[in-house]
Amino acid sequence: MEKRGIGKIALLLSLGDGDIESLQKYYENKNYIIYRGQAGSMDSKKIIAAIETAASREDIIRENYHEEHALYHAIIEALSGYCRGQVLLGEVLRSAGLTFTIVRGTLVEDEPSSGNWIAVVLYGQIGSPRRGFEHEAIGMGIQPI
């Protein structure tokens, strides 16, 4: 099996329909820290806060500038992709309901020299706050710690 990058690992965990638990355990055994959660709002600040709170609560990041800053930029990068360039939701009458995945570990699987990184993937529905007027979207952010 080819070595996977942290982004592909996060994407597989976000998009997987099958046995996510076994895939998650496989990568946790390779020293990746993984968390999957859900968020939904018309306010991007609430989605950012939900991801930051989960990362802190699950000990994915510690309370220091470098780790918090890396997570923040990974979230903003992922939101930029998810929102297609404009990190705006309610301000432009859009809502989001998404699953987020946070992965922390080496940039490349089984290569400790690749350093410590964090990846955030957002996958779900975005669109008008009216039921049936939404569509799928995805965004990913990767930052070094």
UniProtKB/TrEMBL annotation:
Keywords: Activator, RNA-binding, Transcription, Transcription regulation
Range of residues in the leader sequence: none
Known function: Antiterminator that binds to cis-acting regulatory sequences on the mRNA in the presence of histidine, thereby suppressing transcription termination and activating the hut operon for histidine utilization.
Superkingdom: Bacteria
Family per record: Belongs to the HutP family.
Gene3D superfamilies attached to this UniProt entry: Hut operon regulatory protein HutP
Gene Ontology terms, MF aspect: RNA binding
Pfam families membership: HutP (PF09021)
Subunit-structure text: Homohexamer.
Name assigned to this protein: Hut operon positive regulatory protein
Source organism of this protein record: Sedimentibacter hydroxybenzoicus DSM 7310
